[in-house]
Amino acid sequence: MEKREVTFRIKRFNPKKDKEPYYQEFKVTVYKGMTVLEVLQTIKDTLDPTLAFRAFCRSAICGSCAVRVNGFPKLACKTQVFNELDKFQTDTLTIEPIGNMEVIRDLIVDWTPSIEKMKAMKPYLIPDPEVVPPTPDEESKVYPEELKKFDKFTDCILCTSCYSACPMVELDDNYGGPFPLARVYRFAVDPRDALKKERAKIGFAYDMWNCVRCQMCADVCPKHVGPVDGIMKLRGLSIEAGMKDNPGARHVMAFYKSLLESGMLNEVLLPLRSKGIKGILENLPIGIRMILKGKAHSPIMRPIAEHETLVKVMKAAMEVE
């Protein structure tokens, strides 16, 4: 069986005795097929019993073993060591706790703030009495076309990998975070739910418009849920529910209006339509520089050649959505 000598550089921290986190190296003989979790358990069993980490199911279901491997959030039980070595072309792997959460000890972080934030956002079904029968003797049916809208978001295992990689979580204490906001959307489109589009107000209260669509949450999700998709759809529901008097919604509508008018983005009118006079003043310096360099176009734009076809495609897409 193929084997390699691998150095594992693990970030350690025990707040009871350590002033600062530090890295400790362990050399382990790894056999092909071993996971990062198996290596951590080997280190704990044979080299250092004080190493602290979380693990439970070993089947990529509970989400408790999430750590960073060479800087990227991973489920330790799912991550093959040889795959990571080949990917990074190295014989050393750095294992650290996931980000955006306080470290309790070594690789264990405090999930409490993220979970409490999610709980406050009501991530559970509030039965609609007109849809859900009053007793369990009757069925509450969800048809395939209805399930398709939220099915993938039910795959979230609450590993918090997306939360740990989200730059907005780090910058905005009020931001709900990828997995909580995606769960809000999941129930907003559940036909059995009483709140439905009203859940968009919850998303707004937890700064869903601050998502920068960096796609990090989608990149690191071990279940390929793609929370950012749920956040974008929740934004759409908020506009449908009439929550249009905010910069985020106006920005989206300004994009849409530009495409309807000419088939191109009107960057000159975009600040005005998104933020009014304030938007013009904020963007005036860069606007002047663009004019001086000949890069600013006229606010009056002629429609592109295939404008009518584009408008048809856009409206058809909106109907399908």
UniProtKB/TrEMBL annotation:
It comes from the Bacteria. Pathway: Carbohydrate metabolism; tricarboxylic acid cycle; fumarate from succinate (bacterial route): step 1/1. Residues 146-174, 202-231 form the 4Fe-4S ferredoxin-type domain. Residues 4-101 form the 2Fe-2S ferredoxin-type domain. InterPro entries: 2Fe-2S_ferredoxin-like_sf, 2Fe-2S_ferredoxin-type, 2Fe2S_fd_BS, 4Fe4S_Fe-S-bd, 4Fe4S_Fe_S_CS, Beta-grasp_dom_sf, Helical_ferredxn, SDH/FRD_Iron-Sulfur. Its EC number is 1.3.5.1. Its cofactor is [3Fe-4S] cluster; [2Fe-2S] cluster; [4Fe-4S] cluster. Belongs to the succinate dehydrogenase/fumarate reductase iron-sulfur protein family. This is Fumarate reductase iron-sulfur subunit.
